[in-house]
């Protein structure tokens, strides 16, 4: 699958099949995801592989769509607001790389923003030096949603003199 096809067919996956993804495969996606751009080579990501006990304590309403794998993706908190924003942007690129690699193997991810709560941070044991950018469910989709309509990009482009 080429990049364009992966971008076009990627979806936010709501529910997953129980079938696990081979660990060597998802580890290879993380390995490639780290090639994401990051300012000053801070490589600000950290990945927590969420085990069953921790997962239960997170109490996600839909249990991460029954995903066979749950990863908490952390971003190093910068010293300044700019560093903080840059680190989150780099981690977003990391997640998108991972997502497109999953897509190219017939898998997908479910994004959940619950990591921003104090309760989730505590459950994950994340200190002040990191933020939980997202907690993703990863697996093979039970069903692939239709593409959601997007506004024409021309409407979001402004040309400056
Ligand atoms: C930073 C970020 C956080 C998100 N958090 C959630 C979330 O908490 N719950 C959820 O259902 N979807 C979440 N999403 C997924 C979006 O809802 C989804 O990407 C959007 O509906 C478009 O659908 P698509 O990805 O299938 O094109 C998040 C996406 C991003 C980029």
TrEMBL record:
Transmembrane region positions? none
The GO terms describing molecular function are: oxidoreductase activity
Nitroreductase domain: residues covered = 56-140
- A Pfam family the protein falls into: Nitroreductase
Task: Cite the SUPFAM superfamilies for this sequence.
Answer: FMN-dependent nitroreductase-like
Domain of life per record: Bacteria
Say which species the protein is native to. Alicyclobacillus hesperidum
User: What InterPro entries does the record tag this protein with?
Assistant: NAD(P)H_nitroreductase (IPR052530), Nitroreductase (IPR029479), Nitroreductase-like (IPR000415)
Source species taxonomy: Bacteria, Bacillati, Bacillota, Bacilli, Bacillales
Q: What is this protein called?
A: NADPH-flavin oxidoreductase
